[in-house]
Amino acid sequence: MRLPDYNFISLRIVFTTFFIVASAAVLAEQTTEEKGFEIAARSDRSDRGFSDSTVDLKMVLRNAANKESSRTLVIKTLEIPDENVGDKSLVVFDSPRDINGTALLSHAKILDPDDQWLYLPALKRVKRISSTNKSGPFVGSEFAFEDFTATELNKYTYKWLREEPCGEFTCDVVERYPRYENSGYTKQISWVDQSVYQVRQVDFYDRKDSLLKTLTLLDYKEYEGSYWRSHKFVMKNHQTGKSTELIYSNYQFKTGLDENDFVKGVLKRAR
Amino acid sequence: MRASLLAILFVLACTATTASDRYELELSGSVTYEPRWFFDDAQFPRQFNGVQNSFTLEPEWFLEMGSKHQFSLVPFARYDARDDERSHVDLREAYWRYIEDDWELLIGVNREFWGVTESRHLVNILNQIDQVENIDEEDYLGQLMINLTLQKNFGRFSFYILPHFRERTFAGTNGRLRGPVTVDKDAVTYESGAEEWHTDVAFRYSHFAGDWDIGVSYFYGTGREPTLLPVGNGSRLLPHYEIIHQAGIDLQYTHEEWLWKFEGIVREGQGDTFAATVAGFEYTIFQIADSNADLGLLLEHLYDGRDDRNVPVTALENDLFAGVRYTFNDINDTAVLAGFITDLEDESNSARVEAERRIGDHWKVEIEAQWFSNTRAGSSTASFKNDDFTTFKISRFF
């Protein structure tokens, strides 16, 4: 009788040990993913509650020889509080002057393709366009369409990597993986500060998993005691030597915009 | 009439001023030098040969007062060295728009575009085509209108009253890209006793649901396409404008890289009631061969079931359009569009290439070339058989 008992006990020990080790491993893995998500969510949520915003944007495009070209535009955003639905945005170009009045309306989704309409002032024409083109350049810049549209929390899965100093702050370093289709990236690594939870830097890795671009976010200001906004984005392409700067100014929040300001019919009167 | 309209707008502007708190006046626009070359000698007597020098000016004043009032003033002028009819001025826009959250009212001259297809704009009917500008029928004259629009969560409803009609423009006796005899605009006739002051009405509903965009429209009034009747022993053509009813529908299904498009109309009032359609797709290969460029492939079938006689003539009774759009997505927005349209019945065809590129922040160059082939007598493009052309445009934007 001892033998079976012994076997039974040893079997229990083996199984229990295995279970503890296995669950510890699972627990540990969940911790880095959950921690990554929590950091991203805390950062994302710290920017929310603004209802709607308008901002002026100047884009400065530089090629490898440092030759410059610029665009000015206005961006209006309507916040959709539900994290499972994306925000709505309206981008209207002011310069270069040949595209003055060109406007792009986006209804962002989380995992489905966004709904997008483009207004072409020369023809006075509103055109529904394909939003499959996530990784293509936005108006010739080093920003891809997805760099503007894929800022929603649930468009990615996350993994916390480590903690390290970043400039004057201490940052959590979080890797994120696009969940939506047609992304040009295998992963992005973001540095999120532990003081006000803002993203300070993002490294983008291309489809071959090599470092493609680095985005640095500078000049953060706090509005109405709650939303932080960076006023200078610098995107450097390591593979081509080109770069694009985004300079934001004249942020306004809670201006009273609503759903009716983000329908395709308003494109032709957007300025 | 133009002067009185402007006076009305000015009074409205002054009235609105008192209610406004914030002004933003913007001047933009362009000036263009646009020579056009014809390589073959003209087919018809008195037409010019060689180069056609031309200049255009289109300033645009836009005034926004508060968030509720918008004023636009867009005059247009073209000087043409070879064709007197092509030298012309127009008021493209001169309107006041009042905006509330779920409705808006526009009074004045405006341009409205309806539709989704590329090769022909069937549904688009409010504005008259400014045909001397370009034979691609994408330039329109300003149209006087009162336009009330209601935005509901189930769609957008637009109602139009159009008190004044604009005649189509045609190349003059010296001009190229015309038929064997010229159109005598002074001899114009109308079905309506009110002539160009017949009050036309129109309605449009548009909405989107998921991947679908839909537009439904209706127009009653003076048809924008004239019937050209030979007079004076066939020495000139008299334009005649009928009263028509036209119902239209435009549909687009957008899925991944595909845009599926359809436009259809039914028109009554020009011979037997007829239907016309354009149906096709646009498929885009994004970032082709790992570059930043996109390659779009377009295919559309055109059908038009109108009578053969005593109605406005169309060359697009049963045609196929195929096109390629190459967009470089570079700093200069360089793009090339090549299209080919073939008549499936008489086998005449035409090819067109358009290329454009910005230079610096304020200049843009464009090249447009068009060829006509299989243009034997009786085919739909027989009049253009010697009219292959290349246009070069250089524009300064401000």
What does this protein look like?
The complex is a heterodimer of chains A (271) and B (398). Chain A is α+β, with helices and mostly antiparallel strands. Chain A has a single domain, classed as Lipoprotein localisation LolA/LolB/LppX (outer membrane lipoprotein receptor (LolB), chain A), CATH 2.50.20. Chain A has helices at residues 2-46, 145-149, and strands at 52-62, 68-78, 88-95, 103-107, 115-120, 125-129, 156-166, 169-178, 185-193, 199-206, 211-223, 227-237, 243-253. A 13-stranded antiparallel β-sheet of chain A has the order 6-5-4-3-2-1-13-12-11-10-9-8-7, covered by helices on one side. Chain A is globular, with a radius of gyration of 23 Å. Chain A starts with a helix and ends in an 18-residue tail after the last strand. Residues 1-9 and 18-27 of chain A have low confidence and may be disordered. Chain B is mainly β and 398 residues long. Chain B is built from 1 helix and 23 strands. In chain B, strand 5 and strand 6 (88-99) form a beta hairpin. Chain B is globular. Chain B starts with a helix and ends with a strand. The A-B interface holds A 61, 63, 69-70, 95-101, 113, 115, 123-130, 132-133, 135-137, 139-140, 258-260, 263-265, 269, 271 and B 24, 26, 28, 30, 62, 64, 70, 97, 99, 101-102, 104, 111-113, 115-116, 138, 149, 151, 153, 156, 206, 208, 213, 252, 254, 256-259, 284, 286-287, 292, 294, 329-333, 358, 361-362, 364, 395, 397-398.
Key words describing this protein structure:
heterodimer; A: 271 residues; alpha+beta; outer membrane lipoprotein receptor (LolB), chain A; 13 strands; globular; B: mainly beta; 18-stranded antiparallel β-barrel; 3-stranded mixed sheet; 53% strand
